[in-house]
Specification:
By secondary structure, this protein is α+β, with helices and mostly antiparallel strands. It has one domain: Arylsulfatase, C-terminal domain, CATH 3.30.1120.40. The chain has 1 helix and 7 strands, in the order ββββββαβ. The protein has one helix at about 70-90; strands at about 5-10, 20-25, 30-40, 45, 50-55, 60-65, 95. The strands form 2 sheets. A 5-stranded antiparallel β-sheet has the order 4-3-2-1-7. The longest helix has 21 residues, at about 70-90. It is globular, with a radius of gyration of 15 Å.
């Protein structure tokens, strides 16, 4: 699958593990916005955009509005997102909205 990743915002603050917000286009046909790069002491990972809701017991819940279906698809998307993040991070040093 062909991924086009745009890093929309770098976040360089110590009080949050979120380091970037990205948009990903798939095969020049579909796009998902709000994909996040997160770095914790346990490593780096990607999160999907989500919606929050309250269940019948009044518990706050979260549900991804988009997600890769297979581990292979997730790994491929992560590689593309991390590569774009690393490239932008190498040239940017402060929190910014990234211009296209």
């Amino acid at each position: 699958m062909d991924f086009d990743v745009r890093v929309r915002r770098l976040i360089d603050r110590e009080n949050t593990p979120v380091k970037a917000v990205c948009s990903v286009t798939f095969g020049h046909q579909y796009a998902v916005h709000g994909v996040k790069v997160v770095e914790t002491k346990n490593g780096r990972f990607m999160t999907m955009p989500y919606e929050t809701y309250t269940d019948a017991e009044d518990n706050a819940k979260r549900r991804d509005v988009f997600h890769p279906v297979t581990n292979e698809a997730r790994r491929a998307m992560e590689e593309a997102v991390f590569a774009a993040y690393d490239a932008v991070k190498a040239t940017e040093s402060t929190e910014n909205d990234i211009e296209d």
